[in-house]
Amino acid sequence: MTRTRPSRQPWDLLVIGGGTAGIVAAKTAAQLGASVLLVESHRTGGDCLWTGCVPSKALLAAADVAAVARSGQAKGVEVSEVKVDFSAVMGHVHEAIGTIAPVDSAEALIEAGVEVLHGRARFTGPGRAQVGETELTFRQAVIATGAAPAVPGITGLDSAPHLTSDTVWELETLPSRLVVLGGGSIGCELGQAFTRLGSHVTVVEGAPRLLPREDHDAASVVHEVMTGEGTEVLTGVSVTGAEAHTDPKDPYVTGCLRLDDGRLLPYSHLLVAVGRAPRTRDLGLETVGVEVGDRGFLKVDSMLRTTNKRIWAAGDLTGHPQFTHTAGGHGSLAASNAVLGVRRKVDLSAVPRVTYTHPEVAAVGVTTDDPPDGLRVLTWRHTHVDRAVTEGETGGFTKLTVDGRGRILGATVVGPRAGETLGELTVAVTQGLRTRDLAGVTHAYPTWNDGPWNAAVADVREQLQRPGTRRALATLARTRRWWVTHRAG
């Protein structure tokens, strides 16, 4: 821990929160020549490193190995028995965290010119804050305290032992009967992973389908794969209560959920994955005129400034898409606006998102499910993607939302490594590229990117068949024929 030096006060920028948004904001400001103090109450790195992206993807990688081994017979490779050593799996998870942690450490921040203070920060008045007994003054501030797993107000849930995406990484033994409350991205990812590792998993989602924010067809593919692997999926049901429960036939059962149809759903472990709530309490926001809006998110303008013109916000507590890549970009934007006085604005039109189930669901831009009037949706099934055929993974698809000029405005890709495929499509959406632009780029064969490319090629060919285009091309061909016959040579 470093301690503040009175000579540095007032700080050009005070950053509260050491997750992705805070780290990027602090480093950006320091690089711009500002004096920066970052205050973190727990450990730098934030949810992504310790309880989110990194551990979940490490767990998914282990689960994928188990699933591939079990399915090898379809490709002529038979594995007699798959054994999962859960302690070793969790060892792999924590090793991944440990490998990446130094990049986000306090030492790395100090090396980048940022001073770090551990403790809880609270605003005490205009331009003032306090951390423990330490009084701070600042010219500008960025709040980046992130969000925490939300726990719904279900009767009995507060007293029933349950896991969240923060605490699931403390497990030492594989759950025998896991119930996942929530069928969004986190619930589907972890639910499928634990099924593949050997747990009996039930996913409960109140909406009519899994992944309610994603393309309907994409959700259907994920549902089919998950149930095919053994996950029980209950959609369109509500949970009315949680209670302690024992089952003489299953000594591992510790509790149950009561569903709105009267059924009891027993579990050995309950994972609550219904979303995330912003961490905005006990910051002294009222002392500096920072207003809180819907569901506890901070009110920010298009430049990420709060209702106090000297205080900015970035990351999950703003109500913007709760992704690490969004937090990082917005942290940089907020810091440069604060330190330099520039007026960069947030652009939410092309924020990519990926659900890392198998298959992955990746999307960006305008919806492919029910686009606005005047837009078309191009669909290319992966039964016609040669890489998918060779790997026996033909259940996915690519959808592109395009306008009348062929500009790509949105996309959904379902398949292995769809998140990697999405990069090209995010560039297309951001830069206003047309299907002819994508079709005109040579793609390596065979790759998963053949899906978007083939969809674009098919659209260009369809455009060439339009009556007006065909007449123009026919006229051009006749002109060329006459020229070659009568004038050439």
Explained architecture:
This protein is α/β, with parallel strands linked by helices. It contains 13 helices and 21 strands. The strands form five sheets. Strands 1, 2, 3, 4, 5, 6 and 16 form a seven-stranded mixed beta sheet that branches. A hairpin with a 4-residue loop joins strand 12 (255-259) and strand 13. The relative contact order is 0.11. The model is unreliable at 1-6 (pLDDT under 50).
Quick overview of this protein structure:
The protein is of the alpha/beta class and 489 residues long. Helix content is 33%, strand content 22%. A hairpin with a 5-residue loop joins strand 20 (397-402) and strand 21.
Question: What layout of secondary structure does this protein have?
Answer:
Elements: E1 11-16, H1 20-31, E2 36-40, H2 46-50, H3 53-70, H4 86-100, H5 106-111, E3 114-118, E4 121-125, E5 128-131, E6 134-143, E7 147-149, E8 177-181, H6 185-197, E9 200-205, H7 216-229, E10 232-235, E11 239-244, E12 255-259, E13 264-267, E14 269-272, E15 276-278, E16 311-313, H8 324-340, E17 353-355, E18 360-365, E19 376-381, H9 386-391, E20 397-402, E21 408-415, H10 418-431, H11 435-439, H12 450-464, H13 467-486
Parallel strand pairs: 1-2, 1-6, 2-3, 6-16, 8-9, 8-14, 9-10
Antiparallel strand pairs: 4-5, 5-6, 7-15, 11-12, 12-13, 17-18, 18-21, 19-20, 20-21
Helix pairs in contact: 1-8, 3-4, 3-6
User: Given the helix and strand composition, which structural class is it?
Assistant: alpha/beta
Please tell me what the overall shape is. globular
Q: Give the terminus-to-terminus CA distance.
A: 83 Å
- Poorly predicted sequence stretches spanning 5 or more consecutive residues: 1-6
Helix % is 25-40%
Total strands: the figure is: 21
Mean pLDDT: 93
The biggest beta sheet is recorded as: 7 strands, mixed
Strand content bin: 15-25%
Rg, Å, rounded: 26 Å
Number of helical stretches of at least 4 residues: 13
